[in-house]
């Protein structure tokens, strides 16, 4: 079963043993998400040797990129839902049409992001509270935002693969992209061998190159005709009815993640009041958190695919059962992660930074956030269940309440009004996560998502 999960499966996820289906989807999705998180981990690992300003540059740029990720993930949510529903309905032609229209949307959004990022990078960094030393590294930000087409297409085409049940393809894409990034990162940052010494800018060149080659691999697989979704020349056109239906679901999907990512920007802005050391510490902790959460996100993506395909096959009870089983597995995993961050934060942080102030902030952040991991595990699963059904509005409203009505005001009051500093901002995160999960559970139990039509 492990071999089948890694090298591809022809399993019909609307039939047979549900536990087997979860494993076949979850293993490659977990590995895919782990590979995605390595982009940030590798960059911070090598850039941290250049000092706090370089790490802060990466951190503030990643904060801006969270908006890009939010839009890309919002589009990918609707893409996965539509493709999964068409596959469950045994309509491969409809799945292929959806795939092409999602790529069209991604290219349009990436063109807008690139234009703004290339022309306004210094101003954007200044808006985020960057010091003059950080703004001097604006070339890094320009390339990361300017190369956003690779980000959009990487997310969207992998969403096509996941929705179809070809999760191993998405995993292999990230292996290729990350392998190239890992090789190029130290070479371009430090000037090893024939490569120029580009400093922090080299990290953006390596990351963008790796992602772009990953996209070329994805396009090759779509055209190869060997997998569940096949794109032929007849599909490569703008199909307005399909594009419009996809866009309508995507809008609330985008808003859903923009709410989350903008709340993250708000937290970074609050932390930036306490200087580059605090930002650098939060950046390192956040990258470590992403590295652990993304595998759980992989499990939740498995739930989304199972929900979408089984609703397409008119099996809502099987879809619900898949959510509870996947949620239990995710909770167990996050318990282990929570224990590691609660009892061994200092040794883990020391891998990335030995600067006392930076390390102290990162350790504090990990310790505080570990208390909310179990609640967030279930919240992720319920959210992706809604998304997999095509109901992107419900998670959007939950996110808006939990992260803007609760998290940002609480973070500001604790960090600044009551002078708890960065620790106050960090404490607001598990509080918001607990409220988020409770609301999601109540709405999931009501079951309106089972009747969603897309």
Helical fraction: over 70%
**Domain count:** 1
Strand tally, please? 0
**Percentage beta strand:** under 5%
Largest sheet features: none
| Element pattern in H and E | HHHHHHHHHHHHHHHHH
Task: List its salient traits.
mainly alpha, single chain, 454 residues
Topology:
Layout: H1 2-7, H2 18-47, H3 52-88, H4 92-127, H5 132-135, H6 138-146, H7 148-164, H8 167-190, H9 200-224, H10 240-272, H11 276-312, H12 316-343, H13 345-349, H14 356-369, H15 373-388, H16 393-417, H17 422-446
Sum this structure up briefly.
The chain is mainly α and 454 residues long. It is 82% helix and 0% strand.
Please, could you describe this protein's structure?
With 454 residues, the chain is mostly helical. The chain has one domain. 82% of the residues lie in helices and 0% in strands. Helix 3 (52-88) runs parallel beside helix 6. It starts with a helix and ends in an 8-residue tail after the last helix.
């Amino acid at each position: 079963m492990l071999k089948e999960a890694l090298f591809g499966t022809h399993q019909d996820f609307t039939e047979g043993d549900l536990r087997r289906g979860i494993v076949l989807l979850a293993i490659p999705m977990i590995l895919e998400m782990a590979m995605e998180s390595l982009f940030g981990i590798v960059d911070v690992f090598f850039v941290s040797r250049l000092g706090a300003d370089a790490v802060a540059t990466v951190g503030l740029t990643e904060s801006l990129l969270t908006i890009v990720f939010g839009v890309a993930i919002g589009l990918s949510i609707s893409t996965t839902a539509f493709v999964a529903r068409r596959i469950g309905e045994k309509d491969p032609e409809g799945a292929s049409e959806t795939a092409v229209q999602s790529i069209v949307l991604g290219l349009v959004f990436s063109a807008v992001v690139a234009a703004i990022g290339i022309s306004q990078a210094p101003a954007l960094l200044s808006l985020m509270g960057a010091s003059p030393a950080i703004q001097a590294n604006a070339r890094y930000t320009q390339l990361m935002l300017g190369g956003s087409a690779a980000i959009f297409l990487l997310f969207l085409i992998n969403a096509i693969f996941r929705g179809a049940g070809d999760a191993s393809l998405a995993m292999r894409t990230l292996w290729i992209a990350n392998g190239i990034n890992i090789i190029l990162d130290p070479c371009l940052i430090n000037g090893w061998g024939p490569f120029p010494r580009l400093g922090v800018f080299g990290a953006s060149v390596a990351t963008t190159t790796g992602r772009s080659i990953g996209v070329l691999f994805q396009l090759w697989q779509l055209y190869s005709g060997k997998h569940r979704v096949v794109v032929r020349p007849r599909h490569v056109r703008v199909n307005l009815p399909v594009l419009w239906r996809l866009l309508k679901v995507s809008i609330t999907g985008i808003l859903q993640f923009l709410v989350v990512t903008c709340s993250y920007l708000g937290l970074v802005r609050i932390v930036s009041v306490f200087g580059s050391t605090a930002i650098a510490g939060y950046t390192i902790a956040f990258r470590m958190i992403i590295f652990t959460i993304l595998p759980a996100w992989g499990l939740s993506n498995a739930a989304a695919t199972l929900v979408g395909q089984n609703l397409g096959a008119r099996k809502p009870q099987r879809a619900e059962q898949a959510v509870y089983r996947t949620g239990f597995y995710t909770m167990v995993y996050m318990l282990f992660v929570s224990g590691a961050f609660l009892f061994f934060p200092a040794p883990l942080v020391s891998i990335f930074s030995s600067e006392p102030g930076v390390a102290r902030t990162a350790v504090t952040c990990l310790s505080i956030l570990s208390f909310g991991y179990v609640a967030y595990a279930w919240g992720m699963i319920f959210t992706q269940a809604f998304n997999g059904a095509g109901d992107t509005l419900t998670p959007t409203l939950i996110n808006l309440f939990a992260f803007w009505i609760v998290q940002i005001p609480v973070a500001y009051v604790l960090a600044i009004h009551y002078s708890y500093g960065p620790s106050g901002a960090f404490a607001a995160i598990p509080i918001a996560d607990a409220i988020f999960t409770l609301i999601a559970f109540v709405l999931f139990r009501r079951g309106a998502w089972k009747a969603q039509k897309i």
